[in-house]
Specification:
CATH architecture of the domain at 2-39 and 210-279 and 390-438: 3-Layer(bba) Sandwich
Shape: globular
Bound molecules: flavin-adenine dinucleotide
CATH class of the domain at 2-39 and 210-279 and 390-438: Alpha Beta
Structural class: alpha/beta
CATH topology of the domain at 2-39 and 210-279 and 390-438: FAD/NAD(P)-binding domain
Helix content: 25-40%
Strand order of the largest sheet: 7-6-15-16-17-14-18
Distance between the termini: 8 Å
Radius of gyration: 23 Å
Oligomer: single chain
Number of strands: 19
Length: 439
């Protein structure tokens, strides 16, 4: 039995890892377009500083998956306590925002608290993200932080984002909001309060750990961009830049919108192509800036809702320990999202770097351009799935189609779901169990 997996990110490698123990499987070919496997879990290096595609941390409510990740990393893993802040008018507000209201200027505290206590939206049914924020947190917290921040990261009006993205966020008790306004800081989202991160090598260490445990029957082919896939009777033929691969089973983890265009039969199916083209996603630019000063303190990530600042989040890489620090300097990683053809997409790398440095000055993390030692900017096309109001309907059509074709979908953009690493590994485990039943 031969299996082909399209893509070579965490979803492909973890799936191969789970499948490899089945004796009925003789060969698994993992096909990755880039020269190094890992996808969004890859890490990059500039002047000795290793950084990820946006800050990647390991946390989960799923103890089994957490155990797998921790075991794989072994000694190269360190525990940290979350210290994230929201930057509001140059003030550090603890994350989540509603749990640390006393840090706001008094007029903002009054707006947030009054609109929460006397909330006219409380009893409405929320059908989109914006309505959910208004109903759950009131107009003050929504307009002061949640709405501008979410507009900035999604680049899409929250009124057109599906409520499924946020509906599991619990409504804070009135008492907590009052305590937070009076000066008590309450730790929220407790499952993320502690997290781990590799001591060195960035999040790609996890990818390397998976690859190191793959048996000989698993082959990871890099520089193997898939450009056509065809089902011939009961087997699949995959054309790549590294040759042709044939198999009895096929799993795709590459962005499903692109997969529809290279899967020969789907190309003849107009409604599938339309659904694929209507799937929305964000891209991301990551800008690393090493500076002479440190105004960030012992904190890691800062959320910035202020629209005058280009990035929505900035992380202090030194927080992760000695392996991510150059003596006498501080290294930040700023994240800027964008959609095809918008201003950030069209801006040159030099312009985005300049806007990032300007932003650092606006939030008070540098005094002038003279403080900057070096920068590095990289762009990644697929970063965030956007759950617009038609996402569910589009994906239902696509999933039904590929199920009939006997093709399995897996991964963040493979299934077009907002999945973190823990959910990806669980999805791979579940799919591996299913495939072994289907063998
Ligand atoms: C900014 C950001 C921050 C994140 N932070 C966290 C975090 O803190 N914690 C956490 O748990 N998760 C985090 N994640 C999520 C995590 O990165 C993903 O869940 C995970 O990496 C997805 O793996 P994947 O294999 O599904 O997708 P990908 O990593 O996208 O893999 C898909 C692979 O397919 C390849 N490919 C595409 N087209 C082709 C083709 N035609 N032929 C061959 N190969 C192809 C790509 O090159 C890629 O390697 C974050 C993600 C982002 C974007």
């Amino acid at each position: 039995m031969k299996i082909t997996i399209l893509g070579g990110g965490l979803s492909a490698l973890s799936l191969a890892y789970f499948l490899q123990n089945n004796d009925r499987i003789d060969e698994i070919n993992v096909l990755e377009k880039d020269d190094i496997a890992g996808g969004l879990c890859r890490s990059y290096e500039k002047n000795g500083i290793v950084y990820d595609v946006g800050p990647h941390i390991i946390f989960s409510k799923n103890s089994n998956v957490l155990g797998i990740m921790n075991n794989l990393l072994g000694e190269n893993n360190e525990k940290h306590r979350r210290s994230n802040r929201i930057l509001h008018k140059k003030r550090f507000v603890q994350y989540p925002f509603e749990n640390d209201l006393s840090k706001l200027p008094q007029e903002d505290i009054d707006y947030c608290v009054n609109a929460f206590i006397h909330n006219p939206f409380e009893n409405y049914e929320a059908t989109n993200m914006l309505q959910f924020f208004l109903k759950t947190f009131g107009e003050g917290i929504t307009n002061t932080y949640l709405r501008p921040y979410n507009e900035k990261i999604w680049k899409f009006d929250p009124a057109f984002i599906d409520v499924r993205v946020v509906e599991r966020i619990p409504q804070p008790p009135k008492d907590d909001i009052l305590r937070s306004a009076e000066g008590e800081t309450i730790d929220g989202y407790l499952h993320q309060l502690y997290f781990t991160y590799p001591k060195h090598g960035g999040m790609e260490s996890l990818i390397k750990a998976f690859i190191a445990r793959l048996k000989n029957k698993v082959k990871v082919h890099t520089n193997a961009r898939v450009f056509e896939v065809e089902k011939i009777s009961t087997h699949y033929k995959v054309n790549t830049f590294a040759g042709v691969f044939e198999s009895n089973k096929l799993i795709s983890t590459i962005p499903v919108n692109e997969f529809c265009h290279i899967y020969k039969d789907a190309k003849k199916t107009q409604d599938i192509l339309e659904a694929a083209d209507n799937l929305l996603y964000n891209s991301i630019a990551i800008c690393v800036v090493n500076v002479k000063k440190d105004y960030a303190g012992d904190n890691y990530a800062f959320m910035v809702a202020d629209k005058n600042v280009k990035f929505h989040r900035i992380s202090k890489l030194d927080f992760m320990g000695k392996g991510y620090h150059i003596d006498g300097t501080t290294t930040y990683m700023a994240e800027i999202t964008y959609r095809k053809n918008d201003l950030n997409d069209k801006a040159s790398d030099a312009e985005l770097t300049e806007r990032t440095i300007e932003g650092l000055q606006t939030i008070g993390f540098i005094d002038s351009y003279e403080d900057v030692n070096f920068t590095d900017l990289k762009r990644f096309e697929y970063a965030y799935v956007i759950y617009d109001l038609k996402h569910h309907q589009n994906m239902k059509l696509i999933k039904t189609y590929f199920k009939k074709q006997g093709v399995y979908l897996n991964g963040r953009f493979g299934t077009f779901e907002y999945l973190n690493m823990d959910a990806i590994i669980q999805q791979s485990k579940d799919l591996s169990d299913k495939i072994q039943v289907d063998l």
